[in-house]
Amino acid sequence: MAIISPGFRGRRPQIDPSRLPPGQYATEDFPVLSAGPTPHTPLREWSLTIRGVVDRPTTWSWSEFGALPHVTITTDIHCVTKWSKFDTVWGGVSLDTLLEIVGTRAPFVTAWSDGGYTTNLPAQAITGGKAWIASEFGGEPLHPEHGGPARLLVPKLYFWKSAKWIRGLEFRNEDEPGFWEVNGYHNFGDPWKEQRYQGD
Amino acid sequence: MEGTAVPGRLSWRVAKVVGNTTETPRVHSLLLDVPDWPGHLAGQHVDIRLTSEDGYQAQRSYSIASAPEDQRLMLTIERLEEGEVSPYLSDALQPGDALELRGPIGGYFVWHEPLGGPLLLLAGGSGVVPFRSILRHHAATRSRVPVRLLYSARRFAEVIYREELERLTANGVDVKLTLTREWPDGWTGYRRRIDSDLLREIAWPPSENPLVYACGPTSFVETAANTLVSLGYQPTRIRTERFGPTG
User: Which residues of A touch B229 (CB under 8 A)?
Assistant: First the structure.
């Protein structure tokens, strides 16, 4: 039961409230949140690797990644720091496309990034049209501050799960908490259940 | 990257406002009594929740300005004119009022003795707030880790914690101010935005491998962190907290 803040009116969102998960507010901005410096990996040194408990571990160079079938995704995104941004437009490769190539039935996955960032997800959270490796935002190459050259995009979960500067996915038989997940944040991070922090 | 886990569920607590002080024309500090506050690490933040009479709610995050050793929790709020929450916190809350919060939150942008140093704190604007906590913790524990703060503000009137920073300086803490837009008569501090010349001048050299914390608006933090990396500092020794105007 919440206490009332007398005189507080708030600024009611001029949007469909059913699109806003609990505790979130809508913004037109695209705030930047990262735990360390923005990496600037040259594209000629960039690659994406899927390894671990998979049938065919695979690494794609930037040009090989670019040759994979790309799709456009329009989606709402939700950051654990409370902002949500509606109708963001991304371009990238579906995880389903990549997983068809490598083949896996492992139940967990850890994404890792330039700069040492990691985040963990159940494999179910990134299969079946739920996740992409995104390299474009708003029709332009993804800016480094927002995770370029490529980031994971898992819009159904809080956005720290959408690892910036992604370099690979490791499929695993056991779950292993990632960077924010060992720093007090929720292991799964469903915005609609307001799973912000450990124990939520 | 090491971290410090925050165990258990973070439940909402009802804090009592015991003070609302003006730091600068746009910045207020709230002193709070929080029943059963579990303690925090210097650098962590809390979530605030406001509820209107018809049940509408808004949440925001604010850095903790007080040290773990302080009796009361202090939050410092920058009042954003178009903000939904900060004007209420700044203008409406008075001693005796109740305020819901939960925390502490965040296990990475924190400093305590085992993390060592030398400790270089880079603040842009209200990004200085978590560093008040860190500096007070550093002083309260009589830490011998060398510490230095570079604080960039637009003008002198916008420098938060002026008196406290003067006290810290008198007690031997190395505090350097840079003002980027206007300078009072006789200003002897720096007069420019953070850049590689300024960082070269104030930072310990890369060979001493300082532990760096940068907090402020995105443009400030990006410049600070990118410049340090290009000067040869270890990216893994640079911790960042960026924020924009979020109301």
Answer: 37
| Chain B residues within 8 A of A197 when measuring between CB atoms | 6, 9-10, 105
Kindly state whether A127 is in contact with chain B, defined as any CB-CB distance less than 8 angstroms. no
pLDDT 10s digits, B24-40? 999 999 999 999 999 99
For chain A, which ranges sit under pLDDT 50? none
CB of A67 less than 8 A from some CB of B: no
Is A116 in Cβ contact with B84 (below 8 Å)?
no
pLDDT for residue B246:
46
CATH architecture of B13-105: Beta Barrel (2.40)
pLDDT digits (tens, 9 = 90+) for B237-247: 999 998 755 44
Interface of B with A in 106-125 (CB under 8 A): 106-109
The residue ranges of every structural domain in chain B are: 13-105, 113-243
Whether CATH 3.40.190.10 fits B113-243: no
CB atoms within 10 A of CB A69: 7
pLDDT tens-digit series, residues B134-173: 999 999 999 999 999 999 999 999 999 999 999 999 988 9
Q: How many CB atoms lie within 10 A of CB B245?
A: 14
Going along chain A from its start, the domains and CATH numbers come out as 42-193 (3.90.420.10)
What percentage of chain B exceeds 70 in pLDDT?
95
